[in-house]
Design goal:
alpha+beta, 21 helices, Hypothetical protein af1432, three-stranded antiparallel sheet, 408 residues
Length: 408
């Protein structure tokens, strides 16, 4: 079978066979060239402009290495090609700006980003899969983690995480322990029904988790990224709720198409379009500011019960502050956890990584302490919203959050 090579800045040369090249050339996969891997993180790290497209090739490459190096016995010969294909297609269900619109996809399109059965079963990709002797439903099952072999792609430590951590560190310039994918791949495999690491991979796993910790605190949960993503998400809700765009249209957009829809919304909803105003602010990095930005130690564990009532909280804070509801945005991330800490190590017995490595246990505690929830508002409304937010969440005697510029 004819192959091509693509030079990747993270892994070097990646071989692409003719079938994989045809999949990459489909409009649905080419769309991933226009979806940034890290959403709005380039507002903090200007180099963070890499895309889901290159990440998809990287995951496929690591999946191929897992079969070459890991202790993986296949129940069926075709499983290797199925998983390689699933690795290449695994991000095809992402919305524009990646995780910034994940909740929008779940709420209005009624699917998770890894629920791609309908996407793969029809159109050009479905035809290519069937012509190549692959069942779209089987590939979708691998992507959604429903099969044993899919643990390579979707588990506590998997090829997806190995690639995006290494890639995100490369493009942001954030340095930490790094990702030793070779050692991890060489010492991972199936032990009964469990997907495990061998003891020789413990240090590499520690390094990966250290990298994950630094990326969480420095990039993934940076307050500028959280604010921009929250603003974008609210604008998307507005576009759909005002019927400016249908959910079926929304999930086909890329980053460019979404920003264009937001900018042009004045034509449908008049000059006071909220989406258009948010687009202007995102274009100019004129972001909302932190009225409240505190951790669990300040707001308490009860804050997580509010995650399902964000709209109601925003309305209540807005009413108490005497501002429009569009001037208040509440962001309560999910309860802090690092899934990789549940990775299993097999020696004389199977143990969790936290039981084998005291360092990982300490890292988990530090991750919890880094968690922050936020209430955001335009600069001119900040003081009014701050007082109302502090009252709502019953926060007392906390020093006001300092607003830093990009260069501070």
């Amino acid at each position: 079978m004819e192959t091509k090579v693509v030079l990747d800045p993270v892994h070097g040369y990646i071989e692409i066979d003719d079938f994989q090249a045809k999949l990459l050339d489909t409009p649905r996969m080419q769309r991933l060239r226009r979806i940034r891997q890290l959403g709005f993180s380039n507002m903090v790290y200007p180099g963070a402009n890499h895309t889901r497209f290159e990440h998809s090739m990287g995951v496929m490459y690591l999946a191929s290495k897992a079969f070459e190096m890991g202790d993986i016995t296949l129940s069926k010969p075709e499983e290797r090609e199925e998983l390689m294909t699933a690795a290449l297609l695994h991000d095809i269900g992402h919305g524009p700006f990646s995780h910034a619109t994940e909740k929008i996809i779940e709420t209005y399109c009624m699917r998770h980003h890894d629920d791609v059965k309908n996407i793969l079963s029809s159109g050009q990709i479905g035809d290519l899969l069937r012509d190549h002797g692959l069942k779209p439903s089987k590939i979708a099952a691998h992507i959604s983690g429903e099969t044993m072999i899919s643990r390579i792609l979707s588990s506590e430590i998997d090829v997806d995480k190995m690639d995006y951590l290494a890639r995100d560190m490369h493009y942001t310039g954030v340095t930490s322990g790094g990702v030793d994918s070779i050692r991890l791949l060489k010492h991972m495999g199936f032990y009964g029904k469990n997907f495990v690491l061998l003891p020789n991979a413990v240090m590499a796993a520690e390094s990966l988790l250290a990298s994950r910790y630094w990326m969480n605190s420095s990039v993934y949960y940076h307050h500028v990224s959280r604010i921009a993503e929250t603003m974008c998400s609210r604008a998307c809700t507005y576009l759909i709720e005002t019927k400016s765009i249908r959910p079926q249209e929304f999930e086909l957009l890329d980053d460019i198409g979404l920003m264009a829809a937001m900018r042009q919304d004045n034509e449908k909803n008049g000059n006071d379009s909220f989406a258009c105003e948010i687009a202007r602010r995102l274009d100019n990095r004129d972001l909302y500011k932190r009225a409240l930005y505190e951790g669990i130690d300040v707001v308490g564990e009860d804050v997580f019960r509010h995650r399902k009532n964000i709209s109601r909280i925003e309305k209540e804070i807005a009413e108490n502050a005497g501002v429009d509801v569009s001037d208040v945005m509440v962001d309560i991330p999910q309860k802090p956890m690092i899934a990789e800490m549940k990775a299993q190590i097999v020696g004389k017995k199977i143990q969790y990584l936290t039981e084998v490595s005291p360092f990982i246990s300490v890292l988990g505690k530090a991750h919890t302490e880094n968690w922050k929830m936020g209430v955001f508002a335009p600069k001119e409304k900040l003081e009014d919203v701050r007082k109302a937010a502090y009252d709502f969440f019953d926060v007392q005697n906390v020093k006001k959050t300092k607003q830093n510029t990009l260069f501070e």
